[in-house]
Specification:
Elements lengths: L4 E4 L2 E4 H22 L1 H17 L11 H16 L3 H9 L9 H7 L3 E2 L9 H10 L10 E2 L9 H4 L8
Parallel strand pairs: 3-4
Antiparallel strand pairs: 1-2
Helix pairs in contact: 2-4, 3-4
Length: about 170
């Protein structure tokens, strides 16, 4: 018997070889799941399940206010758009209705008039943020949200105070 082996009734068993093989398999599996984008989803799902397991169902939740409902819907639309499915599921576990509000209804409740060219291109939250990044200057007398992508917004401006922006 060698120093890396343990004896059992059928002969010699290389402990380190098995451990290294298993470790290599785990690393390759982790790398593959990361490349496919599945590892993040698995981690998010585990977090959601842990959250649900720890959530005390015996304590009644406060009623969801109208404002919180609208804010949560803006956030849910953003999360869904960016494929953060399991993160969005936390909202429903916290009392948000399972079925999302209609986008047109949400825009109407927030007094937002969308450009027809930019409609359903991106979440309403992007338009709201773009509006305030421009200093809240309306293009007209209505709360019209531009169909501007924030990806084109100068990065150097995002870290600055509004007064310091171009």
């Amino acid at each position: 018997m060698c120093s890396n082996c343990i004896a059992y009734d059928k002969g010699c068993f290389d402990v380190f070889g098995v451990v290294l093989t298993d470790l290599l398999m785990v690393l390759v599996l982790k790398d593959t799941l990361e490349k496919r984008g599945a590892l993040g989803q698995i981690k998010a799902r585990i977090r959601a399940e842990v959250f649900n397991a720890l959530d005390d169902q015996s304590v009644p939740r406060p009623a969801l206010s109208h404002e919180n409902l609208l804010i949560n819907e803006l956030i849910r639309e953003y999360l869904d758009y960016n494929k953060y499915k399991y993160t969005a599921s936390v909202l429903t576990s916290a009392g948000q209705p399972e079925v999302p509000l209609d986008r047109e209804f949400l825009a109407k409740e927030l007094n937002i008039v969308e450009d027809t060219s930019g409609k359903s291109v991106s979440p309403l939250l992007y338009g709201v943020l773009s509006h305030f990044l421009r200093g809240g200057k309306a293009e007209s007398t209505q709360n019209t949200l531009p169909s501007v992508s924030l990806l084109n917004y100068p990065e150097q401006n995002l870290g600055k105070l509004p007064a310091e922006r171009n």
